Amino acid sequence: MSVLTWWWIAFIVIFLIVYVIDMYATGHRHEEISIKSSLSWTALWISIALLFGLAIFLFFPQNPGTDAKTSTEMGIKFISGYLTEYSLSVDNLFVFIMIFSMMAINKENQPRLLKLGILISIVLRVLFIFLGMSLLQKFEWLIYLFGLLLVWTAFKMLFSKEEDTVNPQTNILYKLASKLFPIDPDVHSPKFFTKINGKTHLTMIFLCLLVLGSTNILFSMDSIPAIIGVIGETDVLDLAEKNFLAISSNVFAVMGLVSLFFALKGIMGMFRFLKHGVCFILFFIGAKMLLGWYEPIAKFFNDYSWISLAIILFTLLFSIIISKVISEEVDDGKEIEEKLEETEK
């Protein structure tokens, strides 16, 4: 087997172990998980992802005939991709919370829906990455289309509110399902389908799953161009290596989100300006892709890929620090928290 195949095996084994542990730890507790415990689990999953990136940086073999050391390039690209996708995943998690509150999903059903939502997200991202990387390999001009999409997404995110994009009443799958089947009036039912008077009824958590699934498609449309912009630009790596980095960094980014979910109510303030940071990261990646036609700029970022990593890392840290320093009486995090409390009641 090739060296890359062994790395694939290592990644899959680590993912399965982490996923099973995370699902068990969050699904087999009778009491509510504390913020401290949730943050501890989240820190553990982040550490595992960063250690995996460090292992790539130190031990991935160099391709013969290349000027740059492949392990260094792959390590930097993995960390850059992971940080970008993790920041997007955390921002998307806020949208999941908003969906739960708008659809009155009680706290007992939320973890189960979140786990299914994450599985859907993983499947969609893997499929879109293979498709996007393959298309980019054949049609290089698509890099500029992806760049435009990221710049547009950055401005759209900056000037829009989550409520404008996640309203279940306007979701096409929600409307179609509710027209085809009657709805169970018990909004707290833990089942996807129920039988009432011999007729199959849809429950609210099934409709919520449809909304999460369709929302995940929109998320993937944003995150896949971003990971392609981070990883797909380098000439040092071949298509197989780029696919490995894009998929592994994406999957690691969504691992541990179930644990983080339980902590968000207590740390909303830490992420109040995260959306602004994510918007800047998307704009930076998109602008870099658009300016790739100018050879000096393309060569600069290709030779000094660590600069992109530094900008992404600094942006995330700055957005968290400024969220902590600047306080407002009313902010998005507090509004979401209040809606969650109303749902739990």
Q: How many β strands by DSSP?
A: 2
Taken as a percent bin, the fraction of beta residues is under 5%
Main beta sheet: 2 strands, antiparallel
What is the count of DSSP helices, taking H or I runs of 4+ residues? 14
H and E order = HHHHHHHEEHHHHHHH
Distance between the termini: 56 Å
Q: Radius of gyration, Cα only, in angstroms?
A: 21 Å
Class based on secondary structure composition and strand pairing: mainly alpha
Domain count: the total is: 1
Specify the overall morphology.
globular
Helical percentage:
over 70%
**Widest sheet: strand order?**
1-2
Low-confidence stretches: 329-333
Secondary structure elements and pairings:
Blueprint: H1 3-27, H2 35-59, H3 70-102, H4 110-138, H5 142-159, H6 162-165, H7 172-180, E1 193-196, E2 199-202, H8 204-231, H9 239-254, H10 257-263, H11 274-290, H12 295-303, H13 305-325, H14 332-344
Antiparallel strand pairs: 1-2
